[in-house]
Amino acid sequence: MEHVDVAVIGAGPAGSSAATWAARSGARVALFEKSTQGRDKSCGDGLTPRAVAELRRLGVDISRFHRIDGLRVQAGTKEREVLWPDGAFPNMGAVAPRAEFDALVLQTALDAGAQLHEHSVAEPVIERGRVIGVQVGSEVTRADLVVVASGAGSPAAKMLGATRVEGSPFGLAIRAYVPSTKADDRHMEACLTVKGPDGALVPGYGWVFPAGNGIVNVGVGALSTMRNFSQLNLNTMLDSYMAQVGRAWGLGEPVARPKAWRLPMHVENRSGPGWVAVGDAAGLVNPFNGEGIDYALESGRHAAELFAINPGTVHAAYDALLAKEYDPFFATARRFAWVIGRPRLLQFLLGIALSTGFTMELVLDIMANLIDSEHRSLAGVLLAGGGRVMSVFDPILQRSQESGTSDIRAKIEASR
Ligand SMILES: Cc1cc2nc3c(=O)[nH]c(=O)nc-3n(C[C@H](O)[C@H](O)[C@H](O)COP(=O)(O)OP(=O)(O)OC[C@H]3O[C@@H](n4cnc5c(N)ncnc54)[C@H](O)[C@@H]3O)c2cc1C
């Protein structure tokens, strides 16, 4: 039976980050990935300045990917373009197709000394209430810490209680790679008012992220707080959005079948004796924009650093860190998800927000994941204040969420 210090389930950004940092601190790391050959995660491929900062820290060179200088936000007839600000994070983003990006981050983990096992982990192994390793086929690998980095809705995470908090918002999103005459554009475009074939607003958020090689990543996402979420058809929404932006972007036909997946935003247990969950498995996706690569990279690092400090206290220390550094922002964002779920109200508020440079900067801070408890900006302070006011309405907001979980798999399957 193999015995390692850290076993990591999943080699997405969260798992590869955890494996890299743990291996660099001298730990013996076994990294399990079920689909290294041709893995292509459904994603917008957008790297925020926050993600770029974390990749620099990790030592990953992303210069091969298309550089992004700022964000363009559309709401109804209003449109605003802003450059990433100089500040706590680099003033650049990028669009990094996941098949290539994930391979690059995985290679960083292997270079650091992590051992890759190209196998699916059947389940974490539990002894006397503590996770003591992972089971692959009939083999058990024992580990002092199991890092669950297996993404959204994975059985391994569910088994340990890292399940969606009932009544909390979650998202579904779909993306397509599409030829475009404007693939060299240096702005990510986000549209907060997606229209249906009849021109009426449909609940959802659309994006076009230029990848720089003749291709753009086009997608739409929807939150469970949106009206009619249970009737949502991601393919139809994507078609509508592509029709809406097709001319401006010179879009052709998708090069492959669009792919959908879920966006977890709040899970019950993120750690326990012998294990921690990181990235999507811990529900770390921003409800404002569906972005989570940055949080995945960061949470992987936190888990590894806390393990290096004290393997005995890692799970409690990790939970405390998430509670302090991430939960306040995520709690506020989940409250605002209720507003995002009402397209007309959202359009009205965005109309105001997009009308001045000052308010637009607030939108940018939120949309670019520039806010956290460490980097206090005016947008962060205003958002936190708004969140506190809205917390009074928590019971009403929770009742207004559609449960709609039963047919998630059907929606995703229908989009494959
Ligand atoms: C359509 C869409 C668009 C998005 N756009 C963006 C965006 O533009 N920018 C952004 O920052 N975020 C975006 N996100 C969110 C982002 O994709 C996730 O937050 C991010 O991938 C989380 O990384 P992760 O490592 O936690 O999980 P994942 O990337 O899902 O990686 C999990 C890994 O675990 C492996 N695995 C699972 N189970 C097992 C097992 N039992 N054994 C072994 N291996 C296993 C999987 O194969 C996978 O490789 C988007 C999401 C969606 C659905």
Q: How would you describe the shape? A: globular
User: What is the CATH third-level topology name of the domain at 2-69 and 90-165 and 263-328?
Assistant: FAD/NAD(P)-binding domain
The helix content, as a percent range, equals 25-40%
Largest sheet descriptor: 8 strands, mixed
Radius of gyration over all CA atoms, rounded: 20 Å
Task: Name some characteristics of this structure.
FAD/NAD(P)-binding domain; alpha+beta; single chain; 20 strands; 8-stranded mixed beta sheet; 416 residues
What does this structure look like?
- GO terms for molecular function: FAD binding; oxidoreductase activity, acting on the CH-CH group of donors, NAD or NADP as acceptor.
- InterPro entries: FAD-bd (IPR002938), FAD/NAD-bd_sf (IPR036188), Geranylgeranyl_Rdtase_fam (IPR011777), Geranylgeranyl_reductase (IPR050407).
- With 416 residues, the protein is α+β, with helices and mostly antiparallel strands.
- The protein has a domain of 210 residues: FAD/NAD(P)-binding domain (3-Layer(bba) Sandwich), CATH 3.50.50.60.
- The protein has 13 helices and 20 strands.
- The strands form four sheets. Strands 1, 2, 8, 9, 10, 11, 19 and 20 form an eight-stranded mixed beta sheet that branches. The chain has a seven-stranded mixed beta sheet with strand order 6-5-13-16-17-12-18, sandwiched between helices. It has a three-stranded antiparallel beta sheet with strand order 3-7-4.
- β9 and β10 form a beta hairpin.
- α1 packs parallel to α6, α6 crosses α7 and α8 packs across α11.
- It is globular and about 60 Å long.
- The structure holds flavin-adenine dinucleotide.
- Flavin-adenine dinucleotide (FAD) binds next to α1, β12, β18 and α6.
